[in-house]
Amino acid sequence: MSSVTAGHVPPTTHDHDHDHAHHGPAKGWRRWVFATNHKDIGTLYLVFSFAMLLEGGILALLLRTELFAPGLQFFRPELFNQFTTMHGLIMIFGSIMPAFVGFANWMIPLQIGASDMAFARMNNFSFWLLPIGAILFTVSFFVPGGANAAGWTMYAPLSLQMGPGMDFTIFAVHILGASSIMGAINIIVTVLNMRAPGMTLFKMPLFCWTWLITAYLLLAIMPVLAAAVTMVLTDRHFGTAFFNAAAGGDPVLYQHIFWFFGHPEVYVMILPAFGIISSVVPAFSRKPLFGYASMVYATAAIAILSFLVWAHHMFATGMGTTSQLYFMYATMLISIPTGVKVFNWVATMWRGALTFETPMLFAIGFIFVFTIGGFTGLMLAVAPIDIQVHDTYYVIAHFHYVMVAGSLFGMYSGAYYWLPKWTGVMYDEKLGKWHFWSSMISFNITFFPMHFLGLAGMPRRYADYAAQFTDFNMIATIGAFWFGLSQLIFLWLVIKASRKIGEPAPAKPWEGATGLEWSVPSPAPFHTFVEPPVVK
To answer: Could you give the number of structural domains in the chain?
Structure first.
Protein backbone atom coordinates (compact mmCIF):
# COMPACT_ATOMS: atom_id res chain seq x y z
CA MET A 1 0.00 0.00 0.00
CA SER A 2 1.30 3.48 -0.74
CA SER A 3 2.02 5.57 2.32
CA VAL A 4 -1.08 7.74 2.36
CA THR A 5 -1.37 10.24 5.17
CA ALA A 6 -4.19 12.64 5.72
CA GLY A 7 -2.82 16.16 5.59
CA HIS A 8 -5.95 17.52 7.18
CA VAL A 9 -8.44 15.30 8.97
CA PRO A 10 -11.78 17.07 8.78
CA PRO A 11 -14.37 17.21 11.52
CA THR A 12 -16.19 13.91 11.23
CA THR A 13 -19.60 15.25 12.11
CA HIS A 14 -21.28 18.55 11.38
CA ASP A 15 -20.46 21.36 13.80
CA HIS A 16 -24.16 22.13 14.10
CA ASP A 17 -25.45 18.75 15.16
CA HIS A 18 -28.82 20.15 16.18
CA ASP A 19 -29.42 21.41 12.62
CA HIS A 20 -28.53 18.03 11.19
CA ALA A 21 -30.07 15.62 13.69
CA HIS A 22 -32.19 14.08 10.94
CA HIS A 23 -29.00 13.07 9.11
CA GLY A 24 -28.08 10.52 11.78
CA PRO A 25 -29.14 6.89 11.56
CA ALA A 26 -32.86 6.20 11.69
CA LYS A 27 -34.08 4.35 14.76
CA GLY A 28 -35.00 0.66 14.94
CA TRP A 29 -35.77 -1.46 11.88
CA ARG A 30 -36.13 1.58 9.58
CA ARG A 31 -32.38 2.19 9.87
CA TRP A 32 -31.72 -1.17 8.19
CA VAL A 33 -34.65 -1.54 5.76
CA PHE A 34 -34.17 1.94 4.28
CA ALA A 35 -30.39 2.11 4.80
CA THR A 36 -28.51 4.35 2.39
CA ASN A 37 -25.35 4.80 4.49
CA HIS A 38 -22.48 2.76 3.08
CA LYS A 39 -21.51 1.41 6.51
CA ASP A 40 -25.01 0.14 7.33
CA ILE A 41 -25.34 -1.47 3.91
CA GLY A 42 -21.87 -3.00 4.27
CA THR A 43 -22.96 -4.45 7.61
CA LEU A 44 -26.14 -5.87 6.04
CA TYR A 45 -24.09 -7.55 3.30
CA LEU A 46 -21.66 -9.06 5.82
CA VAL A 47 -24.41 -10.37 8.12
CA PHE A 48 -26.36 -11.81 5.19
CA SER A 49 -23.28 -13.52 3.72
CA PHE A 50 -22.40 -15.11 7.07
CA ALA A 51 -25.95 -16.45 7.39
CA MET A 52 -25.62 -17.96 3.90
CA LEU A 53 -22.20 -19.37 4.83
CA LEU A 54 -23.92 -21.25 7.66
CA GLU A 55 -26.69 -22.51 5.35
CA GLY A 56 -24.21 -23.63 2.67
CA GLY A 57 -22.03 -25.15 5.40
CA ILE A 58 -24.92 -27.20 6.80
CA LEU A 59 -25.53 -28.61 3.29
CA ALA A 60 -21.83 -29.51 3.08
CA LEU A 61 -21.98 -31.30 6.43
CA LEU A 62 -25.04 -33.27 5.23
CA LEU A 63 -22.95 -34.37 2.22
CA ARG A 64 -20.02 -35.37 4.43
CA THR A 65 -22.36 -37.24 6.80
CA GLU A 66 -23.56 -39.40 3.89
CA LEU A 67 -19.97 -39.94 2.73
CA PHE A 68 -18.61 -40.99 6.15
CA ALA A 69 -18.99 -44.64 5.14
CA PRO A 70 -19.63 -46.50 1.85
CA GLY A 71 -23.19 -47.47 1.00
CA LEU A 72 -26.27 -45.24 1.14
CA GLN A 73 -26.94 -44.30 4.79
CA PHE A 74 -29.22 -41.26 4.95
CA PHE A 75 -30.08 -39.68 1.57
CA ARG A 76 -31.14 -41.05 -1.76
CA PRO A 77 -28.78 -40.03 -4.59
CA GLU A 78 -31.23 -37.45 -6.04
CA LEU A 79 -31.37 -35.55 -2.74
CA PHE A 80 -27.60 -35.88 -2.35
CA ASN A 81 -27.16 -34.20 -5.74
CA GLN A 82 -29.55 -31.43 -4.71
CA PHE A 83 -27.41 -30.81 -1.62
CA THR A 84 -24.24 -30.79 -3.76
CA THR A 85 -25.67 -28.32 -6.25
CA MET A 86 -27.24 -25.94 -3.77
CA HIS A 87 -24.16 -26.01 -1.52
CA GLY A 88 -22.12 -24.69 -4.47
CA LEU A 89 -24.66 -22.08 -5.60
CA ILE A 90 -25.35 -20.77 -2.09
CA MET A 91 -21.66 -20.52 -1.19
CA ILE A 92 -20.72 -18.70 -4.41
CA PHE A 93 -23.68 -16.40 -5.07
CA GLY A 94 -25.01 -16.15 -1.52
CA SER A 95 -21.88 -16.03 0.62
CA ILE A 96 -18.54 -15.22 -1.04
CA MET A 97 -19.66 -12.58 -3.54
CA PRO A 98 -21.94 -10.64 -1.13
CA ALA A 99 -19.27 -10.76 1.61
CA PHE A 100 -16.72 -9.03 -0.62
CA VAL A 101 -19.33 -6.43 -1.65
CA GLY A 102 -19.88 -5.85 2.08
CA PHE A 103 -16.15 -5.20 2.53
CA ALA A 104 -16.23 -2.86 -0.48
CA ASN A 105 -19.20 -0.91 0.90
CA TRP A 106 -17.59 -0.49 4.28
CA MET A 107 -14.00 0.21 3.30
CA ILE A 108 -13.78 1.84 -0.14
CA PRO A 109 -15.34 5.19 0.88
CA LEU A 110 -13.18 5.21 4.05
CA GLN A 111 -10.02 4.38 2.09
CA ILE A 112 -10.47 6.97 -0.69
CA GLY A 113 -11.85 9.73 1.56
CA ALA A 114 -15.36 9.70 0.05
CA SER A 115 -18.47 10.66 2.01
CA ASP A 116 -20.43 7.59 0.83
CA MET A 117 -20.93 5.34 -2.19
CA ALA A 118 -21.91 7.10 -5.42
CA PHE A 119 -25.48 5.73 -5.68
CA ALA A 120 -26.85 5.35 -2.17
CA ARG A 121 -30.41 4.26 -3.05
CA MET A 122 -29.24 1.82 -5.71
CA ASN A 123 -26.90 0.46 -3.05
CA ASN A 124 -29.90 -0.29 -0.83
CA PHE A 125 -31.79 -1.89 -3.73
CA SER A 126 -28.84 -4.08 -4.75
CA PHE A 127 -28.67 -5.43 -1.20
CA TRP A 128 -32.39 -6.20 -0.82
CA LEU A 129 -32.35 -8.29 -4.00
CA LEU A 130 -30.08 -10.77 -2.19
CA PRO A 131 -32.57 -12.14 0.39
CA ILE A 132 -35.07 -12.68 -2.46
CA GLY A 133 -32.53 -14.80 -4.35
CA ALA A 134 -31.62 -16.66 -1.16
CA ILE A 135 -35.30 -17.42 -0.45
CA LEU A 136 -35.72 -18.79 -4.00
CA PHE A 137 -32.69 -21.04 -3.52
CA THR A 138 -33.94 -22.31 -0.18
CA VAL A 139 -37.60 -22.75 -1.13
CA SER A 140 -36.64 -24.77 -4.21
CA PHE A 141 -35.99 -27.77 -1.93
CA PHE A 142 -39.72 -27.92 -1.17
CA VAL A 143 -41.22 -27.76 -4.68
CA PRO A 144 -42.24 -30.99 -6.53
CA GLY A 145 -39.09 -32.83 -7.63
CA GLY A 146 -36.93 -30.89 -5.19
CA ALA A 147 -34.11 -28.43 -5.84
CA ASN A 148 -31.84 -28.16 -8.88
CA ALA A 149 -29.61 -31.27 -8.93
CA ALA A 150 -27.64 -30.53 -12.13
CA GLY A 151 -24.52 -29.32 -10.32
CA TRP A 152 -23.74 -25.66 -9.55
CA THR A 153 -22.65 -25.36 -13.20
CA MET A 154 -26.21 -26.31 -14.31
CA TYR A 155 -24.95 -28.27 -17.32
CA ALA A 156 -27.36 -29.15 -20.11
CA PRO A 157 -28.85 -31.68 -20.81
CA LEU A 158 -29.38 -32.37 -17.08
CA SER A 159 -30.66 -28.85 -16.42
CA LEU A 160 -33.24 -29.31 -19.21
CA GLN A 161 -34.68 -32.37 -17.45
CA MET A 162 -35.00 -31.03 -13.86
CA GLY A 163 -38.29 -30.17 -12.18
CA PRO A 164 -39.49 -26.66 -11.24
CA GLY A 165 -36.63 -26.34 -8.72
CA MET A 166 -34.41 -25.57 -11.71
CA ASP A 167 -36.60 -22.58 -12.63
CA PHE A 168 -36.26 -21.27 -9.09
CA THR A 169 -32.49 -21.50 -9.47
CA ILE A 170 -32.57 -19.66 -12.81
CA PHE A 171 -34.61 -16.78 -11.36
CA ALA A 172 -32.43 -16.64 -8.26
CA VAL A 173 -29.28 -16.45 -10.41
CA HIS A 174 -30.85 -13.62 -12.46
CA ILE A 175 -31.75 -11.65 -9.33
CA LEU A 176 -28.36 -12.16 -7.66
CA GLY A 177 -26.65 -11.28 -10.95
CA ALA A 178 -28.59 -8.01 -11.19
CA SER A 179 -27.50 -7.21 -7.63
CA SER A 180 -23.85 -7.88 -8.59
CA ILE A 181 -24.06 -5.63 -11.65
CA MET A 182 -25.50 -2.75 -9.62
CA GLY A 183 -22.86 -3.21 -6.93
CA ALA A 184 -20.14 -3.20 -9.59
CA ILE A 185 -21.41 0.03 -11.22
CA ASN A 186 -21.55 1.66 -7.80
CA ILE A 187 -17.98 0.68 -6.95
CA ILE A 188 -16.57 1.81 -10.32
CA VAL A 189 -18.23 5.24 -10.14
CA THR A 190 -17.26 5.70 -6.48
CA VAL A 191 -13.59 4.86 -7.06
CA LEU A 192 -13.24 6.87 -10.28
CA ASN A 193 -15.22 9.96 -9.25
CA MET A 194 -15.17 10.34 -5.46
CA ARG A 195 -11.52 10.11 -4.38
CA ALA A 196 -10.30 12.81 -2.00
CA PRO A 197 -8.14 15.64 -3.40
CA GLY A 198 -4.60 14.35 -3.93
CA MET A 199 -5.68 10.69 -3.90
CA THR A 200 -4.41 9.66 -7.33
CA LEU A 201 -5.20 6.17 -8.60
CA PHE A 202 -1.68 5.02 -7.76
CA LYS A 203 -2.02 6.26 -4.18
CA MET A 204 -5.12 4.15 -3.54
CA PRO A 205 -4.84 1.18 -1.21
CA LEU A 206 -4.63 -2.06 -3.17
CA PHE A 207 -8.01 -3.17 -1.85
CA CYS A 208 -9.61 -0.34 -3.89
CA TRP A 209 -7.60 -1.35 -6.95
CA THR A 210 -8.53 -5.02 -6.73
CA TRP A 211 -12.20 -4.13 -6.33
CA LEU A 212 -12.13 -1.65 -9.24
CA ILE A 213 -10.76 -4.40 -11.50
CA THR A 214 -13.19 -6.97 -10.04
CA ALA A 215 -16.12 -4.63 -10.72
CA TYR A 216 -15.17 -4.41 -14.40
CA LEU A 217 -14.98 -8.22 -14.50
CA LEU A 218 -18.49 -8.45 -13.02
CA LEU A 219 -19.89 -6.06 -15.63
CA ALA A 220 -18.39 -8.21 -18.38
CA ILE A 221 -19.43 -11.66 -17.15
CA MET A 222 -22.77 -11.45 -15.30
CA PRO A 223 -24.73 -10.79 -18.55
CA VAL A 224 -23.07 -13.89 -20.06
CA LEU A 225 -24.36 -16.04 -17.20
CA ALA A 226 -27.78 -14.43 -17.57
CA ALA A 227 -27.75 -15.37 -21.27
CA ALA A 228 -26.78 -18.97 -20.51
CA VAL A 229 -29.51 -19.58 -17.92
CA THR A 230 -32.08 -17.75 -20.07
CA MET A 231 -31.30 -20.11 -22.96
CA VAL A 232 -31.79 -23.05 -20.54
CA LEU A 233 -35.12 -21.52 -19.51
CA THR A 234 -36.34 -21.15 -23.10
CA ASP A 235 -35.18 -24.69 -23.91
CA ARG A 236 -37.18 -25.93 -20.94
CA HIS A 237 -40.43 -24.06 -21.57
CA PHE A 238 -40.55 -22.30 -24.94
CA GLY A 239 -39.50 -24.91 -27.47
CA THR A 240 -36.06 -23.60 -28.37
CA ALA A 241 -33.22 -26.08 -28.87
CA PHE A 242 -29.99 -24.29 -27.98
CA PHE A 243 -28.67 -27.21 -25.93
CA ASN A 244 -31.02 -30.09 -26.79
CA ALA A 245 -29.01 -32.49 -28.98
CA ALA A 246 -32.15 -34.44 -30.01
CA ALA A 247 -33.51 -31.26 -31.64
CA GLY A 248 -30.20 -30.20 -33.22
CA GLY A 249 -28.80 -28.20 -30.28
CA ASP A 250 -25.36 -28.55 -28.74
CA PRO A 251 -24.91 -29.30 -25.02
CA VAL A 252 -21.20 -28.43 -25.25
CA LEU A 253 -22.19 -24.90 -26.35
CA TYR A 254 -23.67 -24.44 -22.86
CA GLN A 255 -20.30 -25.30 -21.32
CA HIS A 256 -18.52 -22.73 -23.49
CA ILE A 257 -20.96 -19.97 -22.52
CA PHE A 258 -21.02 -20.98 -18.86
CA TRP A 259 -17.24 -21.13 -18.46
CA PHE A 260 -16.75 -17.85 -20.30
CA PHE A 261 -18.57 -16.51 -17.24
CA GLY A 262 -17.28 -19.13 -14.82
CA HIS A 263 -13.56 -18.68 -15.12
CA PRO A 264 -13.42 -14.89 -14.64
CA GLU A 265 -15.93 -15.51 -11.81
CA VAL A 266 -13.25 -17.46 -9.94
CA TYR A 267 -11.14 -14.28 -9.97
CA VAL A 268 -14.13 -12.19 -8.90
CA MET A 269 -14.05 -14.32 -5.75
CA ILE A 270 -10.30 -14.05 -5.14
CA LEU A 271 -9.06 -10.61 -6.30
CA PRO A 272 -10.70 -8.70 -3.40
CA ALA A 273 -9.02 -11.18 -1.03
CA PHE A 274 -5.69 -10.30 -2.69
CA GLY A 275 -6.48 -6.66 -1.91
CA ILE A 276 -7.18 -7.43 1.74
CA ILE A 277 -3.97 -9.46 2.12
CA SER A 278 -2.06 -6.59 0.48
CA SER A 279 -3.34 -4.29 3.26
CA VAL A 280 -2.77 -6.67 6.17
CA VAL A 281 0.73 -8.00 5.38
CA PRO A 282 2.42 -4.54 5.24
CA ALA A 283 0.62 -3.44 8.43
CA PHE A 284 1.96 -6.34 10.51
CA SER A 285 5.36 -6.34 8.77
CA ARG A 286 5.66 -2.60 9.51
CA LYS A 287 6.93 -2.03 5.98
CA PRO A 288 5.37 -0.60 2.81
CA LEU A 289 4.06 -3.19 0.37
CA PHE A 290 6.88 -4.46 -1.86
CA GLY A 291 6.26 -3.61 -5.52
CA TYR A 292 2.97 -1.69 -5.28
CA ALA A 293 2.79 -0.85 -9.00
CA SER A 294 3.67 -4.40 -10.05
CA MET A 295 0.79 -5.63 -7.83
CA VAL A 296 -1.65 -3.35 -9.68
CA TYR A 297 -0.42 -4.49 -13.09
CA ALA A 298 -0.44 -8.14 -12.00
CA THR A 299 -4.08 -7.80 -10.88
CA ALA A 300 -5.03 -6.27 -14.23
CA ALA A 301 -3.10 -9.02 -16.07
CA ILE A 302 -4.95 -11.74 -14.12
CA ALA A 303 -8.28 -10.12 -15.01
CA ILE A 304 -7.48 -9.90 -18.74
CA LEU A 305 -6.03 -13.42 -18.95
CA SER A 306 -9.04 -14.84 -17.09
CA PHE A 307 -11.12 -14.31 -20.26
CA LEU A 308 -8.77 -16.36 -22.40
CA VAL A 309 -8.71 -19.68 -20.54
CA TRP A 310 -12.34 -20.78 -20.08
CA ALA A 311 -12.12 -24.10 -21.95
CA HIS A 312 -9.51 -25.57 -19.58
CA HIS A 313 -12.64 -26.70 -17.68
CA MET A 314 -13.58 -28.69 -20.78
CA PHE A 315 -10.51 -30.77 -21.70
CA ALA A 316 -12.62 -33.93 -21.34
CA THR A 317 -15.23 -32.83 -23.94
CA GLY A 318 -13.10 -34.07 -26.85
CA MET A 319 -11.79 -30.73 -28.14
CA GLY A 320 -9.04 -30.73 -30.77
CA THR A 321 -5.36 -30.94 -29.88
CA THR A 322 -4.69 -27.39 -31.04
CA SER A 323 -7.39 -26.00 -28.76
CA GLN A 324 -6.11 -28.10 -25.87
CA LEU A 325 -2.59 -26.75 -26.36
CA TYR A 326 -3.79 -23.14 -26.55
CA PHE A 327 -5.90 -23.37 -23.38
CA MET A 328 -3.13 -25.28 -21.60
CA TYR A 329 -0.48 -22.63 -22.29
CA ALA A 330 -2.85 -19.70 -21.62
CA THR A 331 -3.74 -21.23 -18.25
CA MET A 332 -0.09 -21.67 -17.29
CA LEU A 333 0.47 -18.00 -18.21
CA ILE A 334 -1.96 -16.87 -15.45
CA SER A 335 0.33 -18.40 -12.82
CA ILE A 336 2.92 -15.68 -13.59
CA PRO A 337 1.00 -12.60 -12.33
CA THR A 338 -0.36 -14.73 -9.46
CA GLY A 339 3.22 -15.67 -8.59
CA VAL A 340 4.20 -11.98 -8.66
CA LYS A 341 1.65 -11.35 -5.90
CA VAL A 342 2.86 -14.21 -3.72
CA PHE A 343 6.51 -13.16 -4.10
CA ASN A 344 5.62 -9.54 -3.31
CA TRP A 345 3.82 -10.54 -0.10
CA VAL A 346 6.77 -12.68 0.97
CA ALA A 347 9.19 -9.86 0.08
CA THR A 348 7.09 -7.46 2.16
CA MET A 349 7.47 -9.75 5.18
CA TRP A 350 11.19 -10.31 4.54
CA ARG A 351 13.18 -8.52 7.30
CA GLY A 352 10.07 -6.75 8.52
CA ALA A 353 9.24 -6.29 12.21
CA LEU A 354 6.58 -8.99 12.13
CA THR A 355 3.95 -9.55 14.79
CA PHE A 356 1.36 -12.30 14.61
CA GLU A 357 -2.03 -10.94 15.58
CA THR A 358 -5.05 -12.77 14.17
CA PRO A 359 -5.31 -10.74 10.89
CA MET A 360 -1.67 -11.56 10.11
CA LEU A 361 -2.13 -15.24 11.01
CA PHE A 362 -5.02 -15.50 8.55
CA ALA A 363 -3.00 -13.59 5.93
CA ILE A 364 -0.01 -15.95 6.22
CA GLY A 365 -2.37 -18.95 6.33
CA PHE A 366 -4.01 -17.58 3.18
CA ILE A 367 -0.67 -17.27 1.34
CA PHE A 368 0.41 -20.77 2.37
CA VAL A 369 -2.80 -22.60 1.51
CA PHE A 370 -3.66 -20.53 -1.56
CA THR A 371 -0.23 -21.38 -2.98
CA ILE A 372 -0.99 -25.10 -2.57
CA GLY A 373 -4.29 -24.51 -4.40
CA GLY A 374 -2.37 -22.69 -7.12
CA PHE A 375 0.02 -25.60 -7.65
CA THR A 376 -2.82 -28.13 -7.91
CA GLY A 377 -4.44 -25.76 -10.41
CA LEU A 378 -1.24 -25.72 -12.45
CA MET A 379 -1.40 -29.54 -12.57
CA LEU A 380 -5.02 -29.39 -13.75
CA ALA A 381 -3.90 -27.00 -16.51
CA VAL A 382 -1.93 -29.85 -18.08
CA ALA A 383 -4.48 -31.48 -20.38
CA PRO A 384 -3.32 -35.13 -20.09
CA ILE A 385 -3.37 -34.92 -16.27
CA ASP A 386 -6.68 -33.07 -16.26
CA ILE A 387 -8.35 -35.75 -18.40
CA GLN A 388 -7.29 -38.35 -15.81
CA VAL A 389 -8.55 -36.47 -12.74
CA HIS A 390 -11.46 -34.60 -14.35
CA ASP A 391 -14.62 -34.77 -12.21
CA THR A 392 -12.79 -36.51 -9.35
CA TYR A 393 -12.20 -35.38 -5.78
CA TYR A 394 -8.88 -33.88 -6.93
CA VAL A 395 -10.86 -31.03 -8.51
CA ILE A 396 -12.86 -30.57 -5.28
CA ALA A 397 -9.61 -30.39 -3.29
CA HIS A 398 -8.14 -27.83 -5.70
CA PHE A 399 -11.28 -25.68 -5.75
CA HIS A 400 -11.66 -25.61 -1.98
CA TYR A 401 -7.99 -24.80 -1.43
CA VAL A 402 -8.49 -21.77 -3.65
CA MET A 403 -11.97 -20.74 -2.45
CA VAL A 404 -12.19 -21.67 1.24
CA ALA A 405 -8.58 -21.11 2.13
CA GLY A 406 -8.44 -18.37 -0.47
CA SER A 407 -11.59 -16.25 -0.33
CA LEU A 408 -12.72 -17.22 3.18
CA PHE A 409 -9.34 -16.89 4.92
CA GLY A 410 -8.83 -13.58 3.09
CA MET A 411 -12.17 -12.36 4.41
CA TYR A 412 -11.36 -13.44 7.95
CA SER A 413 -8.04 -11.61 7.73
CA GLY A 414 -9.88 -8.44 6.67
CA ALA A 415 -12.65 -8.89 9.23
CA TYR A 416 -10.20 -9.12 12.14
CA TYR A 417 -8.14 -6.24 10.70
CA TRP A 418 -11.07 -3.81 10.39
CA LEU A 419 -13.36 -5.10 13.17
CA PRO A 420 -12.01 -2.51 15.68
CA LYS A 421 -12.83 0.21 13.14
CA TRP A 422 -16.34 -1.19 12.61
CA THR A 423 -17.30 -1.88 16.22
CA GLY A 424 -15.13 0.51 18.23
CA VAL A 425 -13.81 -2.28 20.49
CA MET A 426 -10.84 -4.60 20.23
CA TYR A 427 -11.96 -8.17 19.50
CA ASP A 428 -10.89 -11.01 21.79
CA GLU A 429 -7.38 -11.84 20.51
CA LYS A 430 -7.25 -15.23 22.25
CA LEU A 431 -10.53 -16.32 20.62
CA GLY A 432 -9.26 -15.04 17.28
CA LYS A 433 -6.15 -17.21 17.51
CA TRP A 434 -8.25 -20.22 18.52
CA HIS A 435 -10.39 -19.57 15.47
CA PHE A 436 -7.37 -19.40 13.19
CA TRP A 437 -5.58 -22.53 14.39
CA SER A 438 -8.78 -24.55 14.63
CA SER A 439 -9.83 -23.53 11.09
CA MET A 440 -6.36 -24.03 9.60
CA ILE A 441 -5.83 -27.52 11.01
CA SER A 442 -9.37 -28.78 10.37
CA PHE A 443 -9.42 -27.33 6.83
CA ASN A 444 -6.33 -29.31 5.87
CA ILE A 445 -7.65 -32.48 7.54
CA THR A 446 -10.84 -32.09 5.48
CA PHE A 447 -9.50 -31.26 2.04
CA PHE A 448 -5.94 -32.56 1.80
CA PRO A 449 -7.04 -36.25 1.71
CA MET A 450 -9.30 -35.38 -1.23
CA HIS A 451 -6.23 -34.98 -3.43
CA PHE A 452 -5.43 -38.66 -2.80
CA LEU A 453 -9.06 -39.72 -3.29
CA GLY A 454 -9.10 -37.93 -6.65
CA LEU A 455 -5.77 -39.36 -7.80
CA ALA A 456 -7.09 -42.83 -6.89
CA GLY A 457 -10.14 -42.18 -9.07
CA MET A 458 -13.03 -41.39 -6.70
CA PRO A 459 -15.61 -39.44 -8.75
CA ARG A 460 -17.25 -36.34 -7.28
CA ARG A 461 -21.01 -35.81 -6.84
CA TYR A 462 -21.59 -39.50 -6.03
CA ALA A 463 -23.51 -40.49 -2.90
CA ASP A 464 -21.73 -43.86 -2.68
CA TYR A 465 -18.18 -45.08 -3.27
CA ALA A 466 -15.99 -48.18 -3.36
CA ALA A 467 -14.71 -49.58 -0.06
CA GLN A 468 -11.06 -48.66 -0.69
CA PHE A 469 -11.92 -44.94 -0.32
CA THR A 470 -13.39 -45.35 3.17
CA ASP A 471 -10.49 -44.22 5.38
CA PHE A 472 -9.82 -40.90 3.65
CA ASN A 473 -13.56 -40.15 3.53
CA MET A 474 -13.88 -40.76 7.27
CA ILE A 475 -10.94 -38.42 7.94
CA ALA A 476 -12.44 -35.76 5.64
CA THR A 477 -15.85 -35.97 7.34
CA ILE A 478 -14.35 -35.60 10.83
CA GLY A 479 -12.33 -32.62 9.60
CA ALA A 480 -15.42 -31.07 7.99
CA PHE A 481 -17.42 -31.13 11.22
CA TRP A 482 -14.46 -29.70 13.11
CA PHE A 483 -14.07 -26.95 10.50
CA GLY A 484 -17.78 -26.13 10.56
CA LEU A 485 -17.90 -25.87 14.35
CA SER A 486 -14.75 -23.69 14.31
CA GLN A 487 -16.70 -20.97 12.50
CA LEU A 488 -18.96 -20.61 15.54
CA ILE A 489 -15.93 -19.22 17.42
CA PHE A 490 -15.90 -16.34 14.92
CA LEU A 491 -19.66 -15.83 15.31
CA TRP A 492 -19.30 -15.59 19.10
CA LEU A 493 -16.31 -13.23 18.78
CA VAL A 494 -18.26 -10.88 16.46
CA ILE A 495 -21.32 -10.92 18.75
CA LYS A 496 -19.06 -9.94 21.67
CA ALA A 497 -17.45 -7.12 19.69
CA SER A 498 -20.77 -5.79 18.37
CA ARG A 499 -22.10 -5.72 21.96
CA LYS A 500 -19.08 -3.57 22.85
CA ILE A 501 -17.59 -6.24 25.13
CA GLY A 502 -13.87 -5.51 25.03
CA GLU A 503 -11.31 -2.72 25.25
CA PRO A 504 -12.25 0.49 23.40
CA ALA A 505 -10.32 0.62 20.12
CA PRO A 506 -8.14 3.64 19.31
CA ALA A 507 -8.47 5.34 15.92
CA LYS A 508 -5.42 3.35 14.77
CA PRO A 509 -5.24 0.03 16.65
CA TRP A 510 -2.44 -1.43 14.47
CA GLU A 511 0.92 0.29 14.70
CA GLY A 512 1.95 -0.41 11.10
CA ALA A 513 -1.40 0.35 9.44
CA THR A 514 -1.50 3.12 6.84
CA GLY A 515 -4.42 4.69 5.01
CA LEU A 516 -7.23 7.18 5.50
CA GLU A 517 -9.53 4.72 7.31
CA TRP A 518 -7.24 4.98 10.37
CA SER A 519 -7.56 8.78 10.50
CA VAL A 520 -11.19 8.66 11.68
CA PRO A 521 -12.29 7.60 15.19
CA SER A 522 -13.26 4.01 16.03
CA PRO A 523 -16.07 3.13 15.55
CA ALA A 524 -16.20 5.06 12.26
CA PRO A 525 -18.83 7.83 12.64
CA PHE A 526 -22.10 7.60 10.72
CA HIS A 527 -21.00 10.45 8.42
CA THR A 528 -17.30 10.09 7.83
CA PHE A 529 -15.76 12.71 5.57
CA VAL A 530 -18.12 15.71 5.51
CA GLU A 531 -15.27 17.69 3.99
CA PRO A 532 -12.90 15.49 1.96
CA PRO A 533 -9.46 15.05 3.54
CA VAL A 534 -6.47 16.30 1.58
CA VAL A 535 -4.01 13.53 0.75
CA LYS A 536 -0.33 14.45 0.70
So the answer is: 1
